[in-house]
């Protein structure tokens, strides 16, 4: 987003849209920055393989953006973030030189691994023009469960049980508060259970073996849960996933959404939820906590909606104050105030209160080293 | 290794040997740099979990060294290198400041991911004093196969077949030439087959599910192989692994070993083996090619032994010339001249012929930025 100076330009890479190579034996694909994520997924699928990055915007977002933001999404638990899926990069540096680092290698210990500087740098260190990405074996079996839980503690225990038994089969573990699900149910979705429950989890297992009995593995791991539904087929699985995927949109009908995207260690999640919830309820009695997220990664989208019947403007005006409560709590548990969403311009100042000074200094030094004239996405990430 | 100036010191971190924390629910362990790798493995095992880094020196090598060299080993195919197993670092910078980056988070998009600069930097940018490492569910089933193959092409095809079926269960795929295995057999090991075969593979599947029928999965994937043995139990599996693990030592009895550690894209492995073998045989008629390695990662330990009956000194004297043949071939396939072993001092000059100038420049700039006085492991990695 350019500032108001009239001296900034936006660089579109959407014409860099070539898939340069797909190498099934090496499990790699080489793509230009403007290729749409869904097209990479489709190319992999066409070769019987999987490109696992998956997120709501996959039909329009591009690989260059996924790299610049180190995108996460729904399968990080098993496959990692975009950083973990990248073997090599081609980059135009701020001084105009091109670094051809498009290596398709899983091991290369010949000096500093510089590509990681550019992934997640939000375009502030150079322009990524192409990348070599890793592919995985295609998925041929899937099981989906919708689980009712008494507490976040029970959810953390359940993750441990499912991981211990299912191992790498566990690709998705999403937690949702009743409040979050209630918003979605108001849009006409059906509640899989007769009674309301305080917390829900969406759990998915996948496998490369077509005859893998994932339902039995899921069922065996389900101790300590209040209730559970196993999807009988793809349609029911999609309906269960819809309850999770509909939260963000459903929240928009409830007044302003104050959104936060944090990670804490998974073990600290129950205490974080309790501590932060109490602080927010004290600050705004009646506040609705739309707590949900990729809990298998320790990542919560900790969103807030106003108390029913109160005014939009008054609630929105308290955004900074309430964010501060969420971020202070996150920091007290050793967490991150931006798990997936980056710093951009809105958090470039805020992060200075939460990151060690040494690290902020190093970031600034790296920025000035690579981009001394400050040409690349000025005003973002580093100050 | 210090130079002859008498002005360099070696810093030992072996007294930094505390395991600071083990968090089973978060699947993380926080350890100091002097902790021995086997002790980390044991601590994880004690919690029913797995720390997957595994290599020959695990009984004596330390986590600090594993991080400084971005260690690989036998399970990279599934779990990645040390870089992929690291969530956070604590580092003493060359200017004496301590960066506490010991975050135990799987997602954190709040600026540049600086830890990757230090992993694999061989101590040239600072001193790593502690790390947060990721743990995985414990392994409860294992299947091991020893396979005879007609060619590297058949090996590459087999990797594809096994991965497609077994997915993440495939943790090890090692390829060996007959020459490599013959050296081991001379030490009294038993050949699992009656007839010699030109190539062999060691394939291992693992699973978290104790009753997983991995033998059937392995058997189903074994098309296009000349012969195969499935280990009937742990003792036979250990014997088969011994054939692979004994190569390096067995080669020492055959005169000087000229060792190379390269990666190429897996798809290029057959052409690389053919091309490089022909060039070496032309340079040294009768040369023995001890070709083996972690082929599931595209990584070959491409070692050379002298022709039988020829002199040690004359062969050793040609080390640079023969390395150049191997490295030129590697580069022509887009490979790396050091997959696991780093640059150290022996390859710091050599790499200048194989890495893009832009990248070498960036490495030098980063070194001068962080360590302007050149205090950290001087003369190594960058010039």
Oligomerization category of the chains in this entry: homodimer
Sheet of most strands of chain A? 7 strands, antiparallel
Outline type of chain A = globular
Mean pLDDT of chain A: 96
Most residues in contact, chain pair and counts: A-B, 93 and 92 residues
CATH fold topology of the largest domain in chain A: Uridine Diphospho-n-acetylenolpyruvylglucosamine Reductase, domain 3
Reading off the top of the CATH hierarchy, the class of the largest domain in chain A is best stated as Alpha Beta
Extended strand count of chain A: 14
Strand order of the largest sheet of chain A: 11-8-10-9-13-14-12
| CATH architecture classification of the largest domain in chain A | 2-Layer Sandwich
Query: Strand share of the residues of chain A?
Result: 15-25%
Cα(first) to Cα(last) distance of chain A is 16 Å
Structural class call of chain A reads alpha+beta
Order of helices and strands of chain A: EEHEHHEEHEEEHEHEHEHHEHEEHHH
Protein name (chains A, B): FAD/FMN-containing dehydrogenase
Pfam families (chains A, B): FAD-oxidase_C, FAD_binding_4
Keywords (chains A, B): FAD, Flavoprotein
GO molecular function (chains A, B): catalytic activity; FAD binding
């Amino acid at each position: 987003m350019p500032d108001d100076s009239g001296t900034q330009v936006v660089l579109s890479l959407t014409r860099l849209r070539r898939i340069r190579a797909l190498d099934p034996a090496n499990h790699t694909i080489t793509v230009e920055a403007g290729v749409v994520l869904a097209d990479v997924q489709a190319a992999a699928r066409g070769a019987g393989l999987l490109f696992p990055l998956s997120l709501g915007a996959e039909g329009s977002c591009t690989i260059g953006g996924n790299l610049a933001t180190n995108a996460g999404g729904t399968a990080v638990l098993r496959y990692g973030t975009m950083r973990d899926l990248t073997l090599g990069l081609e980059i135009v540096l701020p001084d105009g030189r091109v670094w051809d680092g498009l290596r398709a290698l899983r091991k290369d210990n010949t000096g500093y691994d510089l590509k990681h500087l550019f992934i997640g740098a939000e375009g502030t260190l150079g322009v990524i023009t192409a990348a070599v990405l890793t592919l995985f074996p295609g998925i041929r079996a899937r099981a989906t469960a919708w689980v009712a839980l008494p507490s976040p503690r029970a959810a953390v225990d359940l993750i441990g049980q499912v991981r211990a038994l299912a191992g790498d089969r566990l690709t998705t573990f999403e937690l949702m508060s009743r409040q979050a699900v209630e918003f979605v149910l108001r849009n006409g979705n059906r509640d899989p259970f007769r009674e309301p429950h305080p917390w829900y989890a969406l759990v998915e297992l996948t496998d490369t073996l077509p005859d893998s009995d994932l339902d039995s593995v899921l069922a065996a791991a389900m101790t300590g849960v209040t209730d559970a539904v196993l999807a009988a087929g793809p349609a029911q699985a999609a309906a269960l996933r819809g309850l999770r995927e509909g939260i963000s949109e459903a929240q928009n009908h409830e007044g302003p959404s104050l959104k936060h995207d944090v990670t804490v260690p998974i073990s600290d999640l129950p205490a974080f939820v309790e501590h932060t919830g109490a602080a927010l309820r004290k600050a705004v009695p009646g506040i609705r906590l739309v707590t949900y997220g990729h809990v298998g990664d320790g990542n919560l989208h900790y969103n807030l909606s106003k108390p029913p019947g109160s005014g939009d403007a008054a609630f929105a005006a308290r955004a900074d104050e309430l964010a501060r409560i969420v971020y202070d709590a996150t920091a007290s548990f050793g967490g991150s105030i931006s798990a997936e969403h980056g710093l951009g311009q809105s958090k470039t100042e805020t992060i200075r209160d939460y990151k060690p000074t040494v690290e902020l200094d190093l970031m600034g030094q790296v920025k000035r080293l690579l981009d001394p004239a400050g040409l690349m996405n000025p005003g973002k990430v580093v100050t």
